[in-house]
Each structure stands twice: as C-alpha cells, then as structure tokens.
Known about the structure:
heterodimer, A: mainly alpha, B: 5-stranded mixed beta sheet, 11 helices, about 15% strand, binds iron/sulfur cluster, binds FE2/S2 (inorganic) cluster
Amino acid sequence: MNKRFKSGLLTSLNPTRYNLERWSYTLHRITGVILALFLIAHIFEIYHVTLGIAGWDQTMAELSNLGVIELIGMWIIAGSALYHGANGLRLILNEVFGLLLGKPRLPEYPYSPLSLGRNQKIAIYVITLIVVALWIWAGLYLLAGLGIVRW
Amino acid sequence: MKIRILRNDGSKQWWQEYSEEPHKGATVLDVLLNIRETQDHTLAFRHSCQMGSCGSCGMVINGKPSLACQTRITELKSETIRIEPLYSYPVIKDLVVDLNDFVNKHRSVKPYIIRKNPQELEEAPMEFRVTSRENMNFIQYDYCIMCGLCVAACPTVALDPQFTGPQALAQAYRYIADPRDEGFQERQPELDTSHGVWRCHFAGSCSFVCPKGVDPAKAIQLLKREILKRKFVRGPRAGAPASVLVQPEKPISNPPKAPPLDFKMGVNQNE
Ligand code: SF4
Ligand code: FES
C-alpha cells in the first residue's frame, strides 16, 4: 500500500472532530464494503444451484444450520443493508432533488452551514431510529432461528 | 502550555514540542509568531492578513482544519495543542503546503462568466442584469477565500487525489447558477465525471470547517441536481434566461465622470 493511500485512508475513515453527516458518511462506506463482500459470498452461494437439486439442497441444509459466529455475521449484514438503504434514500433526496439542504443565502457570522442544518439532522436521527428498531427485530428473528427466543 | 508541531524538512517529518505561555485572547497564529521570534526561527508557516480574509494560514489544529488567525487558544480548551500541515496536500516545509494542484483544479472549472458570444464581455451590447433574488442563489459562494480547508477536511479527496474537490466544485456551481453565464456545456466535461461532482458522497466536512460560511457541500449537491436536470429534463443547451440582457436605463457608454483627484485631502493635508 503506498504511503499516500495509507495516510489518506486513515484521514478518510476518521470522523472524530467533524460533523454528524461525516459519521453517516463513514458508516455508509463501511456498510457498503460489508455489502460488497456479502454480495460476492452470495453469488458464490447461489452458484451451487448449478450442481443440481441434490447439491442445492445440501447447500441449503448447511445454511440453515448456522453457528453463533455466522449468525452474528448475518446480523451485521442485515444491519448494513438496513443502514445503507435508509441512508441511501436520504442521500438521494439530497443529491438528486436538492432537498434538506436549505436555500443558498448570505453567510452571516457565526456561520452555520444550512446543508448540515436542522432538516438534515432530523433526517439522520429518524433514519437511525428506524434502522435500530428494524435491526433489533432482525436480531430477534435470528435468535428465534437458534431457538433462544420464541417467535 | 505545550505546542506540538508536525515539522517537515522536505525529506523527513517529526513532532517538535515548544512550551509557550500565551496571553489571554491569543490566537494560534500569535503563538506561532512568538515561537518563531523567540524560540525557533526555522519554523515555517504562511500568514498575511491576520484577520481571516487572505486564507493563507490554514493548518490542522487539534485534528481540525482551521485558520490559525481565527482560532483562539482558549477556544481549544486543551493544555496541549497539536498543529499539523493541511491534510491531503504535499508538504513543502513544516506547515507550508503546496497549493498548485488546488489552484489548478479551481482553474479547471473555468471560474468566470462565459458567454456564447465572448465579444459581449468586451463590449456589452446591453446591461447584464441580475436581480437581488437571483444573486442570492450564488452570492454565498463568492465568499470563498481559497484557504483550502475544505479540501483538507474532505474524506474523498484524501482517497482520490484526482477528485476536483469541494472548493472548485462550489465555484463551478457559483458560475452555473449565475443567470449571466452560458458556460454549462464548456464546464460539463470537467464536472460530469466520476472524478468530478459524482465522486462527492456528501460527508459535509467541507462546510463544517469552512471559515467563511460558504457551504460547499450544498453547492455540490445543487450542482448534481443541476447537471441531472440539464441532462434529462431541460436539455444541456439551456443557458441564460433571455431577461438577463436588458436595455439599460442610462446608456452605459457614458459613465459619470469622477471628480478630479484632490491631493490636498488625506495624507498630504498638512503640506
Ligand atoms: S470553500 Fe470555504 S474552506 Fe473551501 S477554500 Fe473557500 S473559504 Fe476555504
Ligand atoms: S492570516 Fe489571513 S486568513 Fe489567517
């Protein structure tokens, strides 16, 4: 890894000292990478369908018999998909429709950028709430699969 | 109070510590000037106006890109202050960074009014009128002092050195939103690419650190919307609204004459 890239990666992935949107950005990147890796694994999984009915059934049987670590992995993937999707919707509102940004205006001291203003923050909080609620639900669902929780 | 500075002599870098007792109300720039005067004259940093308008004293102070002359020591609320050169720029010496790439990117978006008929800029046939409401759409971006803090704060620039960057993109939007401008098509190849406006993923840190309230993050999102609109809805050739060229109330070829200079006024008064 070259030096420029390494220090760039460290700067890029460090949201401390910045704004709330920067934390969203960082989480969006991380969940994006998790989903990309999952997609590769998922393609590998469905490739088993080419092995015929017996092969596919065996893969399915293995997959329905997951250990705790795999289940935690599944839970993380579910969380990533939820967050990446919900935050992605907010970004579409921002980028395609120019919403939640406020209107351009004359800057007045003390400056507080409107694009990082109240609307944006409310959107982020709402997203976080929904994602956390659904993520807990997904966790319970997975625990039900283990027989720990009754569904 | 400890001041830790990330120094660089062009070949290696190291942290150097100074101790200082700054007076109440001192800024980081005051402290640096004092260090250079009384402790270490080899310390290099840029500064000029000392009032937040030239944009030359940008550096990373306690992890946040800031203007040294606009950051008070008391505001930082810490006993140790860490000062680094701006992130994502090549360092020339100590806190002095190379701004060539930054300025070239600014140039690349053609930050000036473009008319389809350039002659109009030399000899305007009529007045170019901008209403104050239209002016509100872009005046915010005129406040940029080119300090480069936004670029240092941007997590995307940190990973993609080819990214046009928040400062230049905000300036591109400033001119595209100007009703006098007809240069959208000329700028499009620079903006509408994967290293242009679409590389921005809206971390908003540029707006967060901007010392002039420019809000480049907003400009970039609005620029994305504008590009999509012109590509898919209005058509790329959509240019300045026809109302922009208006017959002036008074002929512009006859500007009012300034009174002759009176050298007895002002500095030479007593002579
Ligand atoms: S947009 Fe703000 S932070 Fe960026 S160069 Fe201009 S004044 Fe500096
Ligand atoms: S010295 Fe001019 S902005 Fe700080």
